[in-house]
Amino acid sequence: MTWRDQQLPADHPPVKSGAIGVLLVNLGTPDAAEPGAVKRYLAEFLSDRRVVEIPPIAWQPILRGIILNTRPKKSAHAYRQVWTDAGSPLAVITRQQAEAMQARLGNEVHVDWAMRYGTPSIPDRLQALKNSGCERILLAPLYPQYSGATTATVVDKAADCLRTMRWQPALRTLPPYHDDPAYIDALASDLSKQLDALDFEPEVLLLSFHGMPERTLHLGDPYHCHCQKTSRLLQEKLHRPGLKFRTTFQSRFGRAKWLEPATDTVLAEEAKAGTKRLAIAAPGFSADCLETLEELAIQGREQFTEAGGEQFAALSCLNASDPGLAMLETLLRRELSGWISA
Ligand SMILES: C=CC1=C(C)c2cc3[nH]c(cc4nc(cc5[nH]c(cc1n2)c(C)c5CCC(=O)O)C(CCC(=O)O)=C4C)c(C)c3C=C
Ligand SMILES: [Fe+2]
Ligand SMILES: [Fe+2]
């Protein structure tokens, strides 16, 4: 019997110790493609002050009075276009990534996954890792480019959860990896393969990142710079002299000015300027989701072809592809060094 066991009351749950946990986290998604579930998800997501930086006294009446009464129906329709038998693509792919990391990293670590908004929640999975004996946890927000609205809010949520624990696990976080050679190489190899497999040769490749209010750039958020750097490094690595690259920002939300140029504007602009063949990739998304499968692959195609474009392809995200998983393993092992054997 160890010293610690001796301190526990007889009815205390068993305490295992010394394990290492990894928690992969992505943005979150509704539990079902129906308005009620979308409303619950949007209420949590859009109430996060890291996401909408308007004082709650001004924002909450707009959110509760207008947005949550109109957007869920429209968004649920969009979700239905991409929903799978196993659920929302973002959750399905994140789970696949976690299962693959468990197989690659072996029994020395427990790998789990969570969603920042919706389920499975960060507190729920952090507590589960702790209950399974993890005294050290690597928190991995799956956002290559840092922003307050994504990476930071994951860390905030984990910290809120740790605040409730008497006996906290030690926490490490995965840094942004927008310029990491492992990430750029994985994207270049995966996108090259997809480009070579197309039945047409694109004249233009759009690199579309999720947008943010432009104001966040002036307030010092590095997101825009991280996106531009990823884009530059990826173009260099892909090395396709005949291909024109453009970096754009998608998914504008609300009335404020967002980062430009906007993906939908550029799609129409390119087609009107005579581009007939175009491909689009979304390097900032580690998993395909509503924003890539519906907004880019479905709406983007319509925007391009209605403006005169002829051939269009939306390329997949890294998802659970071999290059994507190898990259994730490299990044995680680097952060786990000293915690697990090499
Ligand atoms: C890659 C990073 C993301 C950033 C940065 C980001 C910022 C951001 N998003 C909204 C509003 C919405 N985003 C929505 C969906 C969504 N956003 C991201 C990623 C980033 N968002 C992902 C991966 C997804 C897809 C989720 C899924 O279920 O597949 C939505 C919901 C859908 C809809 O109703 O359109 C909203 C709303 C804001 C305001 C914002 C600003 C900082
Ligand atoms: Fe978003
Ligand atoms: Fe969208």
From TrEMBL:
Its main location: cytoplasm. It is found in: Cytoplasm. Keywords: Cytoplasm, Heme biosynthesis, Iron, Lyase, Metal-binding, Porphyrin biosynthesis. Belongs to the ferrochelatase family. Pathway: Porphyrin-containing compound metabolism; protoheme biosynthesis; protoheme from protoporphyrin-IX: step 1/1. CDD domains: Ferrochelatase_C, Ferrochelatase_N. The lineage of its organism: Bacteria, Pseudomonadati, Pseudomonadota, Alphaproteobacteria, Sphingomonadales. It comes from the Bacteria. Fe(2+) binds at residues 210, 291. It comes from Qipengyuania citrea. This is Ferrochelatase.
